[in-house]
Amino acid sequence: MHEEALRDPPRSPSEETPHQDQEEQRLARAAALAACAPVPARIGNALAGTAGWTDPTLVKSHRFYPKGVSSPAERLKFYASQFPVVEVNSSYYALPRPGMVAQWIERTPPDFVFNVKAFAPLTQHPVEPARLPPDVQGALPASLFDRRRLYPADLPAETRDALWERFRTAVDPLRQAGKLGYVLFQFPPWFTATRGNVRVIEECRRRMEGLPFAVELRHGSWGMPGRIERVVDLLRDLDAFYVIVDEPQGKQNSMPPTALVADPRLAVVRFHGRREETWDAPVGVNEKFRYVYDPAELAPWAETVARLSQEAEQVHAIFNNCVSDHAVVGARGLMALLARRSAALADEAAPVPVSSAVH
Q1: Distance between CA 152 and CA 118 in Å, rounded?
Q2: Is 137 exposed, middle or buried (0-12, 13-18, 19+ CB in 10 A)?
Q3: How far is CA 274 from the centre of its chain?
Q4: For the purposes of burial, counting CB atoms within 10 Å of the CB of 106, is it exposed (0-12), middle (13-18) or buried (19 or more)?
Q5: pLDDT at 145
Q6: What's the pLDDT tens digit per position in 275-284?
Q7: Under 8 Å CB-to-CB from 4, ≥6 apart: which residues?
Q8: 6, 144, 241, 265: which is deepest, by most CB within 10 A?
């Protein structure tokens, strides 16, 4: 079946609604900008990528992977030809298998970077028992077998220790290969700014000693004026990276887009989209993150990323609006804006030819 046959048939003008028309114009602007991005999507020490490369909606969109690129190996190789960095999202749902991690290393260029999201129960999130390793499941007390979800506090101490150790073991080959950017500890929206939760962050850092450690906070109490600076100072003391976010504002689970650097080795910006109506609603991830960044929304971020690139040795801009090709378009669009900015600055700095000088 041809790609064109998989797309929706065009609507007549009479079928268009003002909202649909605006959305299509937005998509067209974003796609046009993305087409101007450098390949791979990198400008200097600023790298852009997406939160995963295997999302089913991305594959089914037929807007990123060329025809014939259909196996896991082919997709990762193609992705790595387009982007210099990726954030592994599947590790949040299940521990990565060591053999799989070895394949990631083999299928990507030497300078390709993987950022890995921590397994759910390591960041205070619940986990479905079926997502635990089979031997760990078998060792659980019988009273936990019928639970739909298990929180870290539900698990025996030895089980928690085993999960920490297995996660470390899974990601360490990336560190050894020089391909690990950070391990992302994204804490849940109910993880508020308390002294007890500060101790949780400190304990997570201790467990991840020797590995690059990034923290994303999701309850607005951490981002209050006067407190966010202290939070970044705390992470600096912990040898940790602060994750800057772009997301809907005005919600309890909203963090401000405060662009601060805790560790000069790396600045991290994660783009979640700005779909306000679904941000704190009980909806699926596709509805929550279905958002296309307009070039006008990315333009200020291009300036911010350029500034961050002067404050940190490297900047990772990760787009988490992984529905269809929205994240791909956003990551490329941001790099296209940075490329334009760099070209404009180069033109301004270029010396005036002697022949054109005014005497």
Answers
A1: 13
A2: middle
A3: 15
A4: exposed
A5: 79
A6: 999 999 999 9
A7: none
A8: 241
